[in-house]
Amino acid sequence: MRVLKCEQKKNKNFASLLKTLLALYVISSVFFSTEALLTMQSMKDFVRILILGFMFIAFLFYPKWLVFSSKFFIFVVLMVFPLFAFSFTETFLNILLLLMMSTMIAFLSLKEVSKTIILYGFTSVLVVVVLVVVGILDQQVFIDLINNRIRYSFGFANANYFSLSLFEVAILTWLVAKKHKLVISFVVMTPVLFLSVSRTPIVAYLLFLVTLPVLGFMRTRAPNLGMLVVTISAFLVVVAGMTIPFINSNSLNLLLSLRLTTYSRAIEHLPLHSFVIGGSQLYLDSSYLSLWTALGIPFMIALCSFLVLRVREFFRSGRITEICFMMSFAAYGITEGVLISPALPLTIVFWTLLLYGRS
């Protein structure tokens, strides 16, 4: 009994340490995403590596709690291919960081991770907004003449970061809140509609809300059909992310704020090996095109396969909320770089679920 209590205490203390380091990572990610600290790239990288290093050192004292999934090793092995192009791209390093961070925090429960991100991430965003209101940080205004939108940055370097942070809180609320999930998430997403005016998080959020009752119904009334739907959907999301950049459509191009034009211009200058073994760096609003050209087709096949396998596993075990999150976030990545951004803590949650499926 005494040994058991001692082990439980160690477990609790270790979890507290990991949550503290995760909180520091979340806080630093928010503030390094502001316009004021945008140019401090080397400092941002140093802080991320330092936090990751402390996590790794902590696991050296408790190595039995550090578990690497087979998916982790497969991804790492497949990331050798871009090296044949003699290239260390930023996307390559970002994915390596995300894989390592996901492995480190996999010891924590999904609820513990979600609560930490909501508490420290949302608080940090509010602090940045307050600093803008009092005039310490600058507010940028972006005018979208194509879609007739006026967007506010709220002190962040990217106009989408504020809305991404609210989307993050709204989605994670469904994983941690016991009551009033819909109300809380709606309230959180309201500024996205009227201030940030970002369409992609709104579409992803609505997709999440629609798929929740649909998959819940299928899970109880038509499980075979539901399994088929989640399997095909996961496959099509990745395929869509890889094929949409090659579509030639004026109406779709306007709807996507001329993203197709940007994709086309970038693709024209890429060497052929980028679509086979990767090795190229693109700065585009497309997670899948960026991943494909940086890490190659073997990595993309593995990503698609693992996403399909994970949502099928979740459907069998009734984890509908996690499926809806992964699918909506994966769909978000079609026209945004969210799947490859360590600056967004929600990205780490996605990769953790993909690799380890922790509950």
Structure in words:
- The structure is a single chain.
- By secondary structure, the chain is an all-alpha fold.
- It has 15 helices and two strands.
- Strands 1-2 form a two-stranded antiparallel ribbon.
- Strand 1 (141-144) and strand 2 (149-152) form a beta hairpin.
- Helix 2 runs parallel beside helix 4 (90-105).
- The two termini are 27 Å apart.
The strand line-up of the biggest sheet is 1-2
Order of helices and strands: HHHHHEEHHHHHHHHHH
Total of helices: 15
What general form does the structure show? globular
Strand content: under 5%
Major sheet description? 2 strands, antiparallel
Q: Report low-confidence residues grouped into runs of 5 or more.
A: none
Number of strands: 2
From the helix content, strand content and strand pairing, which structural class follows? mainly alpha
Rg, nearest Å: 20 Å
Query: What's the rounded overall pLDDT mean?
Result: 88
Helix content: 55-70%
End-to-end distance, in Å?
Answer: 27 Å
In short:
Helices cover 69% and strands 2% of the residues. The chain contains 15 helices and 2 strands. The longest helix has 30 residues, at 2-31.
Topology:
Elements: H1 2-31, H2 41-61, H3 70-78, H4 90-105, H5 110-133, E1 141-144, E2 149-152, H6 161-176, H7 181-196, H8 199-221, H9 223-243, H10 250-255, H11 259-268, H12 287-295, H13 297-317, H14 320-332, H15 345-356
Antiparallel strand pairs: 1-2
